[in-house]
Task: structure prediction
Amino acid sequence: MTGNPIKIVDGIPFFSDDQYWGKSPKEELETALRLIEEKGWEEFRANYHRKFDHTFEENRADWRFVAPISKDFEVLDAGAGMGRASIPLARVAKNVTALDQSYLRMKFLKLRAEKEGLKNIKVNVGDIFDEPFEKESFDLIVMNGLLEWVGATNRFNDPRQAQLKSLRICRNLLKKGGCLYIGIENRLALSYLRGIDHSGLRFTSFLPRALANVYMRLRKGKRYDTYTYTKRGYEKLLREAGLNNNVKFYLPYPGYNLPRMMIPYDNLNALSYAVRSITPRRGLKRKLAWFLVRSKILLQLYRYFFFSFGIVVRK
Amino acid sequence: MISILDKLVEAHPEWLRATGKPLSFMKTSTPSSGTKADQGKVLIFVFEEGEKWPTLCVKTTRVYSNGEVIRRNHANLKLLGEGVRNSEHSKMFARPLYLYDDGEVVFCIESVCPGTRFPTSGQDIELVMERYIAWQEYLAETSKKLVQHGDMTPDNVLIFGKNIYLVDYDYTGMVELPGFDIYNFISKAKLSSELERLYYDRYFPRYFGSIGMAVKSYEDLFPAYHTAEVRRKDGQE
Result:
């Protein structure tokens, strides 16, 4: 299934050079990994609670309940990180191939898989653009929180072209009838009014790309390359990548990284039902929610500005 | 699982409100569900296009090894259904439709209980208690065993017009101590202690009277209810 690695370290094949990323410094993860190997997971839990972007929760890949997956599936978790999707997926698939640019994150996932007794997770260090796998190898490919970052590569001048290329690579890696799952933010997410965009700055996703680029260069000294889109934008991107067969959009609540709900985008009644089920039993929030669900136009607007999308695409 | 479900629904058009309408699926679970692999259930609601309420509720688990909770839920719902067959009380529960278990995937399919979450107003408490006591009275008259819901917290009560629905059947039949459901419901409704006392005084005598039991002081039962709740969660009842 895989090509020839450039090297193997601690049993982990490298298809590209190691490139660390993460919210904590590299040295901190190195120290944590040593602690796991020397003193075990309980010590790690005690010392590094909420320190890295890992989780022991098993509900982070719950989008799988609206996507096809079974015990005979070969799954690729592209941009696997510390394994928040790989671990739960490995419990229900034949094999999970995890790919990430960071050796330390893959080493963490390898140790986690060993701890969980999951022998069907294969970790790999690599960049999706190096195409480390054979064509038509996978039944399901996961790009959960990846597509918005692939434009940050220096291999393409245009971030959108990088995103298109990564989607085309995934299309080639999928078996016929296979499925691609994308978890990603909505460019117009209302929550961006309060928080920061992937760029590290406020409001960049709302701005026209050229303006966001100028703003980014002024403030951060580099280009704006973490593109997100509206639903229509993602549809166009997928169409151009040749992935326009049976595209289904979902609204993950509260977000694609914790999909407690996967609400079918096209069914406003389902959205109304979801809103009614999560509102408190009394109070102002309940009144507001009930006002919202009574109006089709307000529901459509709410959907338009929802935080993120879960996209299921068939090849 | 979604493809198996799709085929099953296609083979059973009698489960649906109409034929030929496109279906969509909505996954949901509670915030605490799935913090561990073998913990909690996952629900999938099946919507028919144009319908305000979902038609079917599918319950499953994240790992097959935890499937007992689904089998039990399905069996409990059948137990509830048998006790109220052909009576107006059957409207208080979902209908069990199917249990799928192929050794790798397990899920059960039920009809959906429409309705909104219990809003905890006095008027609604009266409605819930009236319907609940009428159901228990019916069971006391017609059945050998007084089956209780076992987890009748306000979260598991839905209101739809003048009807109530009791959902989540994991603990049905596990507690045999009469009055447990009423204690569970009122004590978890987040009421002031005065209101709580008022409702206990109002509904316990009505409940015990309706099932033909004489109880001198319902308050003497509270420690037993508390123990029953702890043991029920541990699966010891």
